[in-house]
Amino acid sequence: MSKNYKTVWAECLKIIRDILGNEQEKAYKTWFEPIVPIGLDDNVLTIQVPSQFYYEWLEEHYVDILRRTVRSILGPKGMLKYSIVMGPKIGGTAVTTNLPSSGRQAIQNKPIDFPIDINNNNHMLPNPFIIPGIQKVKIHSQLNESETLDNFVEGDCNRLARSAGFAVADRPGSTAFNPLLLHGGVGLGKTHLANAIGIKTKENHPDKTVLYVTSEQFLQQYAEAGKNKTINDFVHFYEMVDILIVDDIQFWANKAPGTQEAFFHIFNHLHQKNKQIIITSDKAPADLQGLEPRLLSRLKWGLSADLLVPDVETRMAILKQKLANDGIEMPHEVIEYIAYNINTNVRELEGALVSLIAQSSLNKKQITLDLAKQMIDKFVKSTTREITIDVIQKVVCDYFSLPIDSIQSHTRKREIVQARQLAMYFAKKMTKSSLAIIGLQCGGKDHATVLHACKTIANLAESDKQVRHWVEEIEKRFND
Q1: Is 229 part of any domain?
Q2: Could you tell me the CA-to-CA distances from 157 to 294, 305, 338 in Å, in that order?
Q3: What is the dihedral of CA 143, 147, 149, 152, to 10 degrees?
Q4: Same domain assignment for residues 88 and 202
């Protein structure tokens, strides 16, 4: 009697779970539970995996386990076939990907089969042919060397993103997750992970050029290049990079069309040359508003991995690691108390820990649960939402009942000019952004215009009752 494919895969899972053991229970849940069996024909078991990423990860890390398991159930001739739903579009046309072991192609949104003979490891895509080019200029990576994969604590909240980071660092530009988009809320570790991937890539590939840049830096560099009429040099510089990391791309939304245009061309060049692109954002691609449609479509080509708020076990692990790195001992009950009460993001969690240590050191008090309770209570009350230029623009526009894009417009209507100047004034007062960045995000103005606007509002707030009233009322809204 022939076996049912579902039964065969269920038997395989039992063996795999036993092989991995309790210590690798999370690995089992991450990499094997999402797999769906879909067919069995002549000792060839077909399984469907969620993405090219899963296929590559399984083949790189678990091929021996899969080989032994399939053979134990189906006999020495047992083989495995993968079915993957994938395929980004380029310019409206579905991308096709050929694997040497199969004559089939990967078509947009259609399941494809990659027949893999698990007796033969020669089934991966070949490396792209590299044409020798101009000798590379030495570029400083701008990476934070303290933010590594080793001190990025893994949990259910970030496992996929961290695993993708290891894969990208191992084979940058040669996996299906290019670009790699890391997205999540404030303080959840996007910048840390992006830096860590860059550092690991440099360790694995010392000959490759890695560059980390914030979206604000990129904006400012583009503005300077425009002023100096060196846009082509600006673009060519970025085209020399092997691994480009752009942090917080959401800041380009509804502004800087020229910057987005330049990045679009840089992106295309790097992607076509199989160079790796890593991007961070506070939103998933589907929720990113205000980016050029064709640039937004590019962000959807690779893997989009989210970072979620860590659960209490992960928060405790983060605290323990930070304490170990700093050589500090702390009672378990205190660590537990902090982890349970600071549940917003990693940044605030570490901030609370630092505050407690500082309180203990400065006042020469022993760290106890009572001290932690006093400090955490004050810390939670004093923690406020982050004020950004975007938030400021929205508050100002809401106050004057103006559309949000009016501040970015070039109109000289009096009410718009006043709102724009107020937005610049508050941006300088309440953020750490440079005058150039404030100007770029407020209609593409230069730093001199921003400085003039700030002085104008400051002077009028002292001499004009109406302007003073506006400043006071708007300021109240930030404190509500």
Answers
A1: yes
A2: 30, 10, 18
A3: -150
A4: no
Does residue 148 lie in a domain region?
no
What is the pTM for the complete model shown?
Answer: 0.55
What's the domain count of the chain?
A: 4
**189 and 294: one domain?**
yes
CA angle 95, 30, 77 (to 5 degrees): 75
Phi/psi at 108 (nearest 5 deg)? -45, 120
Whether the upstream peptide bond of residue 179 has omega within 30° of 0, thus cis, is yes
| pLDDT surpassing 80 at residue 433 | no
The least confident of 180-184, 299-303, 376-380, 455-459 is: 376-380
| pLDDT per residue as tens digits for the range 46-101 | 888 877 667 767 877 788 788 888 888 888 888 888 887 543 333 332 222 222 22
262 close to 222: Cβ distance less than 8 angstroms: yes
331 touches 367 (CB < 8 A):
yes
Highest mean pLDDT among 217-231, 316-330, 462-476: 462-476
What CATH number does residue 106 fall under? Answer: 3.30.300.180
Say if residue 79 is in the same domain as residue 164.
no
Assess if residue 406 is contained within a domain.
Answer: yes
Domain containing 82 equals 5-116
